[in-house]
């Protein structure tokens, strides 16, 4: 079967500096792939390129058999690309359900239908008890869950998750891992920017490690964890800092 995502030779520069350079990788359907690397490695830029927030200088992104070149983010979202952001920005005054309705409106034009669908996603991410609460009162972990619900309400095939475990308390992490697994069982393919090796080891099938815009390692989480360059660049830093 052809992969859901095929990135080939993708490059983009900012002010003469390569943020992403000749990046090539593929992601199969229902696979969970972790995108790793130190600050400035090019992870977020890669998400921008796949989601259409930025256009590459060169290279190609095939999604579900289609070349995404030139398509705007909303067109890519309709094709099935959704993302969550590291810094969540819900509509503060709207309720949790209303925030998720914004995503659900992509497939439900009637408000009652969008509301009912949004409720289901709110329950799926474990926020049922906050369904009618304003988004502004949510904790960081709850905001990350809301962000996920909003994204999956667009019924994506591919979910780009930016540090969903970042900034949440340790005891919430197993629940988040469980949620990502459940999303995959429902047919989602996931690329996740993630730093937490425990999370990666438990949930990712594969990991891609970038540094200075370049892919330097790819393999199972266990392979990545013992890759000398990775240890040097990342685990070494983490161990020392
Ligand atoms: N809009 C921009 N203008 C100029 N340089 C940029 C821009 N966006 C990113 N860069 C640069 O591109 C490189 C890759 O940045 P990117 O944000 O993709 O890294 P990252 O791996 O996501 O890092 P982090 O873990 O800190 O989020 C960095 O050197 C960054 O400074």
UniProtKB/TrEMBL annotation:
Residues 5-237 form the ABC transporter domain. This is ABC transporter ATP-binding protein. It comes from the Bacteria. The keyword Transport applies. InterPro entries: AAA+_ATPase, ABC_AA/LPS_Transport, ABC_transporter-like_ATP-bd, BCA_ABC_TP_C, P-loop_NTPase. GO terms for biological process: D-alanine transmembrane transport; L-alanine transport; L-isoleucine import across plasma membrane; L-valine import across plasma membrane. GO terms for cellular component: plasma membrane. The lineage of its organism: Bacteria, Pseudomonadati, Pseudomonadota, Alphaproteobacteria, Hyphomicrobiales. The keyword ATP-binding applies. GO terms for molecular function: ATP binding; ATP hydrolysis activity; L-isoleucine transmembrane transporter activity; L-phenylalanine transmembrane transporter activity; L-valine transmembrane transporter activity. It comes from Reyranella soli. Keywords: ATP-binding, Nucleotide-binding, Transport.
């Amino acid at each position: 079967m052809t992969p859901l995502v095929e990135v080939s030779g993708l490059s983009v520069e900012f002010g003469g500096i390569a943020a992403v350079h000749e990046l090539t990788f593929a992601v199969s359907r229902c696979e969970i792939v972790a995108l790793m690397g130190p600050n400035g490695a090019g992870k977020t830029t890669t998400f921008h390129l796949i989601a259409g927030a930025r256009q590459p200088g060169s290279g190609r992104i095939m999604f579900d058999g289609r070349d995404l070149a030139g398509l705007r983010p909303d067109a890519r979202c309709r094709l099935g690309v959704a993302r969550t952001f590291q810094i969540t920005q819900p509509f503060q005054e709207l309720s949790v359900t209303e925030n998720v309705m914004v995503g659900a409106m992509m497939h439900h034009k009637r408000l009652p239908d969008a509301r009912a669908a949004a409720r289901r996603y709110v329950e799926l991410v474990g926020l049922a008890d906050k369904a009618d609460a304003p988004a502004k009162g949510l904790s960081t972990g709850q905001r990350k869950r809301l962000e996920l619900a909003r994204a999956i309400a667009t019924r994506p095939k591919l979910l780009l998750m930016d540090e969903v475990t970042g900034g949440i308390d340790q005891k919430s992490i197993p629940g988040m891992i469980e949620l990502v697994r459940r999303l995959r069982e429902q047919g989602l393919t996931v690329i996740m920017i993630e730093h937490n090796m425990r999370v990666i080891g438990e949930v990712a099938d594969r990991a891609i490690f970038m540094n200075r815009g370049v892919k330097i390692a790819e393999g199972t989480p266990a392979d990545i964890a013992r890759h000398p360059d990775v240890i040097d660049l990342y685990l070494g830093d983490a161990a020392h800092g």
